[in-house]
Design brief:
The protein is globular. It contains six helices and no strands. It has helices spanning about 10-25, 25-30, 40-55, 70-85, 90-100, 110-135. Helix 1 packs antiparallel against helix 3, helix 4 (about 70-85) packs across helix 5 and helix 5 runs antiparallel to helix 6 (about 110-135).
Length: about 140
């Protein structure tokens, strides 16, 4: 397997282990396109999004990490997770949790940025709850 220059073998394994724990699926199923069970697809989608948006792996190189994937599938999964993150704060929290478990936030500045995002998400949720209470 050829790794992207920003992604070490250890970091890739750490990311896979984090997804394995979070979604309760074997690593082998995350890195192959053979299975379409929901939790496996969600774990794979998060890995694809992470590889593209955080590590910088191009869509046409995604096959180096996920067996049987093509660039169109990679593009689809990135767009889909981006939409989910924009709509559902829980998806942003899941992605942040994944990055934390994958060891992306070893420096304090990165941790502060994530905490700032989490605060913004919580503020939006509080505003929504207040609106619902006022409407009732």
């Amino acid at each position: 397997m050829t790794y992207h220059f920003k992604l070490t073998v250890e970091k890739f394994e750490l990311a896979l282990s984090a997804l394995e724990d979070m979604y309760r699926v074997p690593k082998k199923q995350i890195v192959t396109m053979a299975c379409r069970q929901r939790n496996i697809v969600e774990a794979r989608r998060m890995l694809i999004y992470y590889l593209y948006n955080v590590v910088g792996v191009k869509h046409n190189h995604m096959h180096r990490y996920i067996e049987g994937i093509n660039h169109a599938t990679s593009i689809h999964h990135c767009k889909k997770l981006k939409e989910l993150i924009d709509i559902y704060p829980s998806e942003q929290r899941m992605f942040n949790e994944f990055r934390e478990r994958a060891g992306d936030f070893n420096d304090k500045l990165a941790r502060l940025k994530v905490m700032d995002q989490q605060i913004a998400i919580m503020q939006c949720e509080i505003r929504d709850i207040i609106k619902q209470i006022k409407n009732d």
